Inverse folding.
DNA sequence: GTTGAGCGTT
C-alpha cells in the first residue's frame, strides 16, 4: 500500500523539487558559514538560513539553503543528503515551506477559537482587507503553533549569566568530511 | 560540546 491517502504527510515525504533545501539533523554548532562552505560546492547560493531558537538564540538543528538554480539544488540534495557534518548525519530534502512565517501581519491569522458551533462560521475572519494573501506561503502553517509548548521552566530561579565567556575557539572550521563522489 | 523529534515568527 503506497501513501495514496493524500494529506500533507505526502508532501513531507515527497516534497517537490525546489531551490530551497531543508537541512535537518544539524549539530548545534554548525553555522550558516559552515553550510555555505559545504553547499556552495554544488552551485551559487542565494542564501542560507539556520533556524535559531527564539529564546536561547541557538540553533534548532536545522536550516534552509537557497540555491539560485534548480539543477544545483537537485545535485546538492542528492549529494549532501546523508553527509556527515560536524559529526552529524544530516538530512537534506526539498523544503516544504519556502519562507519563515509572517511576523504579526495585523490580521487574525490564528486558529479559530471555536469551530463547529455556529453555522456560517466565517465570523472570525475579521474582514481582512486583502484576500489574495500569499497563498503558497501557507503550506503547513497550521499545526506548528504547537511549538509553544516548549519548556519554559528554564527560567525558574537562576538567571543565566550573560557573560558566558565560553570560548568556542576550537577550530571546528572544517569538521565536516569532504567526500568525493 | 545539551540530544533526539525535527520545515522557519532573530
Amino acid at each position: 500500500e503506497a501513501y495514496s491517502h493524500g494529506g500533507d504527510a505526502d508532501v513531507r515525504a515527497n516534497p517537490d523539487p525546489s531551490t530551497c533545501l531543508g537541512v535537518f539533523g544539524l549539530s548545534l554548532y554548525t553555522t550558516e558559514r559552515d553550510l555555505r562552505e559545504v553547499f556552495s560546492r554544488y552551485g551559487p547560493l542565494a542564501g542560507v538560513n539556520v533556524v535559531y531558537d527564539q529564546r536561547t538564540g541557538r540553533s534548532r538543528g536545522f536550516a534552509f539553503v537557497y540555491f539560485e538554480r534548480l539543477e544545483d539544488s537537485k545535485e546538492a540534495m542528492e549529494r549532501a543528503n546523508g553527509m556527515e557534518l560536524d559529526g552529524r548525519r544530516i538530512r537534506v530534502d526539498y523544503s516544504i515551506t519556502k519562507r519563515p512565517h509572517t511576523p504579526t501581519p495585523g490580521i487574525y491569522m490564528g486558529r479559530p477559537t471555536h469551530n463547529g458551533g455556529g453555522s456560517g462560521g466565517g465570523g472570525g475572519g475579521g474582514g481582512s482587507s486583502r484576500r489574495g494573501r500569499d497563498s503558497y506561503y501557507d503550506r503547513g502553517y497550521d499545526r506548528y503553533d504547537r511549538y509553544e509548548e516548549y519548556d519554559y521552566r528554564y527560567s525558574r530561579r537562576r538567571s543565566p549569566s550573560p557573560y558566558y565567556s565560553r570560548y568556542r575557539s576550537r577550530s571546528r572550521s572544517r569538521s565536516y568530511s569532504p567526500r568525493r563522489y
